[in-house]
Amino acid sequence: MIEITPAIMGPGIEEEYADALAAIGDLRRALGDRPLTNDTPDGRVLLEVAWIEQEIGRRRLPIPVEASYAGTIYYLVGSHELLHVPGVLNPAGITDALGRLYRVLQGIGLVKPRHVPVLIAMIDDLCADADTVRDRLNAQEQEVIDDIRAQGVLLKRGEWPPHRRPQDQFFRYDTPNLDSLVMNFGNRVRGISFPLFDGWRPYPAKKPPLAAPVPGLSQKAPPLPPELEGKLP
N or C: which terminus of the chain has fewer CB atoms within 10 Å of its end residue's CB? Predict the structure, then answer.
């Protein structure tokens, strides 16, 4: 594994703020013009991102963001409800922007060009370990390793692997021999797959929790007023 230098780690919380604001702008464009209201998922998420935007402007938002402050965003990433609200302009854009915002606010972070050497090293290290036991792998397991190696070749050529659906990634086969013979195989494969296909910052380059430059927010959001209870998506 290569050394994780300050240049690879990158800037501090200001980068996360910029990434969050970019995702918020893209989310608004994908949703189109619609009212801010607690009565609908789209209205609620727009209210929540407006608050996130406000707190970034005040430099009071830590990273990661506690779920009580961003619960609608975190929920809608998994529920996909925004894709089905009337009048959505760009469903694919919603998925992309909401996913990016989720990763930033959760402290996962976004993969950047400076992380490519990290990914290449992770791929090379995993493939080298698998090659030492290649004669004990079945054909499907060898195919998985060759597939992972091919992604490293693309990265070394300055290309980025095309997106894949989860079922087409590196987990399409059972890998009992790799799991038993290659140390921490499953976690290492996930650590490669998530940055390549889901835009996660590679785990070795993940930033630690980042305190807000201006303290002030309580650890958790205050309770909702009674009139809003039950109206959240």
Answer: N
Sign for the pseudo-dihedral over CA of 182, 183, 186, 192: negative
The token duo for 208 is: 């630690």
The alpha carbon of residue 209 and the mean position of all alpha carbons in its chain are separated, in whole angstroms, by: 15
Q: What is the pLDDT of residue 232?
A: 46
Do the Cβ atoms of 108 and 101 come closer than 8 Å?
no
Examine the domain organization and report whether 32 and 139 are in the same domain: no
Q: Which residue intervals of 5-66 are DSSP H helices?
A: 6-9, 13-31, 41-57
Phi, psi of 79 (to 5 degrees): -85, -25
CA gyration radius, the chain: 20
What pLDDT was estimated at residue 225?
A: 59
pLDDT, averaged per 10 consecutive residues of the chain (233 residues), comes to 92 97 95 86 92 95 95 90 83 92 97 97 98 96 96 96 86 93 96 96 96 90 61 47
Taking the CA of residue 94 as centre, how many other CA atoms within 13 Å lie in the half-sphere pointing to its CB? 23
134 closest CA partner among 148, 120, 115: 148
Task: Report if residue 140 sits inside a domain.
Answer: yes
Structure tokens at 120: 């290449």
Please tell me the total count of domains within the chain: 2
Pick the closest to residue 95 from 14, 15, 199 (CA basis): 199
Neighbours of 6 (CB within 10 A): 7
